C-alpha cells in the first residue's frame, strides 16, 4: 500500500472512531484601464446555477481557473489577485455542488464538469483564454478540451493535476490503490468535517512532514470551503477525480501547455500524474517544485504566480 493510501485509510479509521454570493460590483462604471470586480451566476443547460467570479480589466487577456476537490473558486484567490493586478481578466467558477453554485443531485462527474466549464466560456464569450486547472480542475480542463476542443483556448496550465489517471488498474499499475479512495468515501460518510480537517492538517499542505509548520488559517480555509460544498457532490466527485481516464483528452491538447507539480505531492503522486501528463501532451513543459506538496497554490503561491505570469506572457 502506498503512503497516500496509508494516510487516507489511517485518517478515515480515526474519523470512524471519533464524530453569499457576492453582489455584482459597479465594474462597468469604472474606467476600463482599472481592475474591475464582478461576480454573479450563470445557468448550466440542466438549470443548475453556477457561481463565477470575473475580476480584472474586461479588455485584458483572459485566464480561466478550475479548482480542486472539495474546494471552490476561493482557492485561486492568490493567483487571481496577482494576475488581475498585472492586467489580466481572471475568471473562475464554483463547480456544481461546490461553493455558491447549485447542489444538483445528478451531474457530479467529469463530463458534466467539462460541459459546465464550456457554458461559462460561452456565456461570458471568453476567447484566447489560458485555462488553468488544479487537481480535479486539471481533469476538468483536460476533459473540456477533449469534448469541446481548443477554439477558445490559447494556452493550458495543469497544476497538481489528477491527469492522466489516478487509480491503480492493470493498465495503470503505479496508480493509487482503490483502498485510498474507498477510505475517502468512508470518511466522508462517517464524518466529513473531521476528514477535511485531517487532510488539510496532514498531507494536502505537507504539514505532516518533519519540520513543517502547520498554518491553522490554511487548515480552516480548506475546511470552510469543503463544508460549503454539498455532501452528495463531494462524495460523487471522489469517483470522478480518481477513476476518470484523461489519456485521450490530453492527446487532443494542441496549445502550449505547462505542467506544474510538487515532487512531494502525497495526494496526487507526481510520478503517475504530472510526469506522465507531460509525456502525453505534445510539447508540454514540466516544472517540478522540489519538496512541494499538493497544495502548492498556497504553500508556493509566490513562485507559482511568477511561473504562471512568465508562461502566459510568452
Question: What secondary-structure arrangement, pairings included, does this model have?
Answer:
Layout: H1 3-17, E1 37-43, E2 49-55, E3 62-66, H2 77-85, E4 89-93, H3 110-123, E5 129-134, H4 136-148, E6 153-159, H5 178-204, H6 216-228, H7 231-243, H8 247-251, E7 257-262, H9 274-280, E8 285-289, H10 296-299, H11 301-313
Parallel strand pairs: 3-4, 3-5, 5-6, 6-7, 7-8
Antiparallel strand pairs: 1-2, 2-4
Helix pairs in contact: 1-5, 2-11, 3-4, 5-6, 5-7
Describe the structure.
- The chain has about 325 residues and is α/β, with parallel strands linked by helices.
- Helix content is about 40%, strand content about 15%.
- It is built from eleven helices and eight strands.
- The protein has helices spanning about 5-15, 75-85, 110-125, 135-150, 180-205, 215-230, 230-245, 245-250, 275-280, 295-300, 300-314, and strands at about 35-45, 50-55, 60-65, 90-95, 130-135, 155-160, 255-260, 285-290.
- Strands 1-2-4-3-5-6-7-8 form an eight-stranded mixed β-sheet, sandwiched between helices.
- Helix 9 links the parallel strand 7 and strand 8 (about 285-290).
- The chain is globular.
The SSE order reads HEEEHEHEHEHHHHEHEHH
Shape designation:
globular
| Strand-residue proportion | 15-25%
Measured as a percent range, the helix fraction is 40-55%
Radius of gyration, in Å, reads 18 Å
Which stretches are poorly predicted, pLDDT < 50 over at least 5 residues?
Answer: 11-38
Largest sheet at a glance? 8 strands, mixed
Secondary-structure-derived class: alpha/beta
End-to-end separation in angstroms reads: 42 Å
* pLDDT averaged residue by residue: 91
Strand order of the largest sheet: 1-2-4-3-5-6-7-8
Number of strands: 8
Contiguous helical run count: 11
Amino acid at each position: 500500500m502506498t503512503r497516500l493510501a496509508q494516510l487516507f485509510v489511517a485518517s478515515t479509521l480515526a474519523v470512524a472512531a471519533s464524530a453569499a454570493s457576492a453582489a455584482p460590483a459597479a465594474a462597468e462604471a469604472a474606467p476600463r484601464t482599472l481592475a474591475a470586480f464582478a461576480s454573479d451566476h450563470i445557468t448550466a443547460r440542466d438549470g443548475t446555477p453556477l457561481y463565477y467570479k470575473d475580476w480584472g480589466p474586461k479588455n485584458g487577456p483572459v485566464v480561466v481557473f478550475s479548482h480542486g476537490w472539495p474546494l471552490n473558486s476561493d482557492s485561486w484567490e492568490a493567483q487571481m489577485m496577482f494576475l488581475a493586478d498585472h492586467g489580466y481578466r481572471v475568471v473562475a467558477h464554483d463547480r456544481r455542488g461546490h461553493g455558491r453554485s447549485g447542489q444538483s443531485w445528478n451531474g457530479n462527474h467529469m463530463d458534466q464538469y467539462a460541459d459546465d466549464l464550456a457554458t461559462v466560456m460561452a456565456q461570458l464569450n471568453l476567447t484566447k483564454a489560458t485555462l488553468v486547472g488544479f487537481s480535479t480542475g486539471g481533469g476538468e480542463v483536460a476533459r473540456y478540451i477533449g469534448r469541446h476542443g481548443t477554439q477558445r483556448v490559447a494556452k493550458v496550465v495543469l497544476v497538481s493535476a489528477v491527469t492522466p489517471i489516478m487509480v491503480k488498474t492493470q493498465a495503470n499499475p503505479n496508480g493509487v490503490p482503490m483502498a485510498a479512495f474507498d477510505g475517502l468515501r468512508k470518511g466522508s460518510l462517517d464524518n466529513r468535517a473531521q476528514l477535511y480537517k485531517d487532510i488539510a492538517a496532514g498531507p494536502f499542505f505537507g504539514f505532516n512532514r518533519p519540520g513543517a509548520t502547520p498554518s491553522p488559517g490554511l487548515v480552516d480555509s480548506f475546511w470552510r470551503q469543503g463544508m460549503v460544498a454539498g455532501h452528495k457532490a463531494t462524495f460523487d466527485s471522489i469517483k470522478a477525480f480518481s477513476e476518470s481516464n484523461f489519456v485521450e483528452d490530453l492527446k487532443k491538447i494542441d496549445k502550449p501547455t505547462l505542467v506544474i507539480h510538487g515532487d512531494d505531492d502525497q495526494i496526487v503522486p507526481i510520478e503517475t500524474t504530472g510526469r506522465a501528463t507531460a509525456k502525453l501532451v505534445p510539447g508540454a513543459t514540466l516544472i517540478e517544485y522540489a519538496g512541494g506538496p499538493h497544495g502548492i497554490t498556497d504553500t508556493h503561491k509566490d513562485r507559482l504566480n511568477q511561473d504562471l505570469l512568465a508562461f502566459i506572457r510568452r
